[in-house]
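Aggregate trends can hide what the representation actually does to any particular protein. In the encoding step, the backbone of a single protein was reduced to a row of integers, each denoting a local shape. The record that follows shows the chain in one-letter code together with its fold in token form.

***
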Amino acid sequence: MDEQFEPLRDDEVLYVPIGRVLMSNPTFKVAEFLDALAQAVSDREGDWSEENEGWFTDGLECEALRLNSNGWQRGRVRVRVEFSPNQRRPKALEGRRIEKPSDPYADSYRSDRGDIRYGDVLRLPDDDY
């Protein structure tokens, strides 16, 4: 399987029903997870300092010996959360602008390319179980 992971933004939300670590609730923002990870590391490290927070924010200056480069490369490193969807979004739904219906109880939305059922756009985490 050719998985392509993409970085998640801090304000995006994850639902992890099993196998989760550091989080007591199954639904949480990426930023909450990174904060919990930083806290767990800082609790374990006796000499944790403010500059160590760079692992979880703007990155820390470092050098990396990468496989496809000629020697050491200077740059920055940071910890991020990435996501790889099981299925790519259907081409028919990509790039569509979806407008909220005037009737808040309607079960479909109107887009510039026709009607889309609400369930086609928003899937709940439990939909696959």
The chain has a mean pLDDT of 78.
